[in-house]
Amino acid sequence: MIDFLKRFWAILASIAAVAGLGLGAEAIHELWAFWLVLGASLVISLFRTQAVARGFDVINRIRIYPKLLKQFGELKERAADLENQLSIYKDECVTSFDRGLIEGARSLRGTLLSAGINPPPVVSSISMDEEALQLFANCDESSIPRTGCRFVVVVKNTQKQLGVLEVQSVEAHRGVAVLTCVERTTPKFWERLEAKALEDPSAPDGIELLTYYYSPFGTPQNDQIEPPTFATEA
Question: Do 223 and 186 meet the contact criterion of CB atoms below 8 Å apart?
Answer without folding.
Answer: yes
